[in-house]
Design goal:
Blueprint lengths: L1 E4 L6 H14 L3 E6 L3 E6 L3 H8 L4 E5 L2 E2 L15 E3 L2 E3 L5 E5 L6 H14 L3 E3 L17 H14 L3 E4 L6 H5 L4 E4 L7 H10 L3 E4 L6 H12 L6 E5 L17 H8 L4 E3 L1 H5 L2 H14 L3 E5 L17 H21 L28 E2 L2
Parallel strand pairs: 8-9, 8-15, 9-10, 10-11, 11-12, 12-13, 13-14, 14-15
Antiparallel strand pairs: 1-3, 1-4, 2-3, 5-16, 6-7
Bound molecules: phosphoenolpyruvate (PEP) and manganese (II) ion (MN).
Manganese (II) ion (MN) binds next to loops.
């Protein structure tokens, strides 16, 4: 159930608090939201809860049935979420670029590539220490040693770091070294892991599952938000289709759809999306043009020697070129946003708005 409050002016917070108290006293778990409108998301809210609040001061309307991702939805939180990690803003105007090796392999190798991606304009350093490999015989990552190297690289470059966590029991350990916790595609519906990163309070990047619908992905984000952690970003990384020339099919439809349905920042991973370095730059550019708030890209000083995902890793020089092109597109979008169409544009050309959304979702309605 969602309780939407009237604006309420200066008394709005007190009215919201009174609604939360009335519901909590009756045993309902509540999440108060203030993201452009004031609302309360009520777990298990039913007709009785509705009757309880309908006459209360400031209550505008009550919705019983809605998609199962109320906290992630733009309906409840119209304003874009912007996540601050040090001096980096994720979800704002300027695209955020996260880059680094698929796996942390050695301290020297990491420091070398970290300095190269920083010099090329990356904002965040990526590197896997716990790797979800398809085969148990493949390199599994350096574990805590890899996390230590990431912390040293952060110290030396000033870049915040992101790394994957695969198990609920490891969340405390990984969170003690990194700035952003990554949930990998294979764990998108590992609900105990989602709850654990929700409780950690660290920013979380939630990758879309290999065969997950957008609705399932948003409901997975809801698990994290429902633990009281508002700093969730979504990452489109390609889905499984019948196509074999690319590793996955990068679903760029998801970018405008998620921006329409949700207030959470959207990041795109073109590296896993295509699986071949040759196609990464084109899809990075397309992602930003489609409205993504940022990219996460695999870069290796010597891709042929990489212990994982070398085929999709850019060299530092190719990455530097990608950053230049992506920043150029971002600047063009900013110039275009809200600007008059050029004089030679076809009559009737529509004004371009970066915040424009896609069609409406038609997902399952649930009562929370
Ligand atoms: C990765 O980022 O290296 C990774 C394993 O990604 P995904 O979970 O998207 O496969
Ligand atoms: Mn990888």
């Amino acid at each position: 159930m969602i309780v939407f409050m009237r604006d309420g002016g200066s008394g709005g917070e007190a009215e919201l608090a009174a609604v939360v108290k009335a519901l909590t006293d009756r045993g309902f778990a509540c999440h108060a939201v203030n993201g452009g409108v004031r609302a309360v998301v009520v777990q298990g809210g039913d007709a009785e809860a509705e009757r309880l609040v309908l006459g209360m001061p400031g209550v505008h309307r009550v919705v019983l049935a809605h998609p199962g991702y109320a906290l992630a939805s733009r309906e409840v939180h119209p304003a874009d979420t912007v996540i601050r990690v040090g001096s980096v803003e994720i979800g704002g105007q300027e695209p955020v670029i996260m880059a680094g090796p698929c796996s942390v392999e050695s301290l020297d190798g990491l420091l070398e590539v970290a300095e190269q991606v920083r010099a090329a304009g990356a904002n965040v350093l990526r590197g896997g220490a716990f790797k979800p490999r398809s085969s148990p015989y493949s390199f599994q990552g350096l574990g805590e040693e890899g996390l230590k190297y990431l912390a040293i690289a952060r110290e030396k470059t000033g870049l915040p770091v992101i790394s994957e966590v695969m198990e609920p029991d490891a969340v405390g350990l990984v969170a003690s070294y990194v700035d952003i916790l990554q949930i990998g595609a294979r764990n998108m519906q590992n609900f105990s892991l989602l709850r654990a990163v929700g409780r950690s309070g660290k920013p979380v990047m939630l990758k879309r599952g290999l065969s997950a619908t957008i609705e399932e992905w948003l409901m997975a984000a809801e698990y994290i938000l429902a633990q009281g952690n508002p700093n969730v970003m979504l990452c489109e990384r390609g889905i499984r289709t019948f196509e074999t020339y690319t590793r996955n099919t990068l679903d760029l439809n998801a970018v405008p759809v998620v921006r329409h349905l949700s207030h959470l920042p959207v990041i795109v991973d073109p590296s896993h999306g295509v699986g071949k370095w040759r196609y990464v730059n084109a899809m990075a550019r397309a992602s930003i043009a489609a409205g993504a708030h940022g990219l996460i890209v695999e870069v290796h000083a010597n891709p042929d020697k990489a212990l994982s995902d070398g085929a999709q890793s850019l060299t530092p020089a190719r990455f530097a070129q990608m950053v230049r092109e992506v920043r150029y597109i971002a600047a063009a979008l900013r110039a275009m946003d809200g600007a008059e169409p050029p004089a030679d544009a076809a009559a009737g050309a529509e004004a371009v708005s970066l915040s424009a959304g896609a069609g409406t979702g038609s997902g399952t309605l649930v009562t929370v």
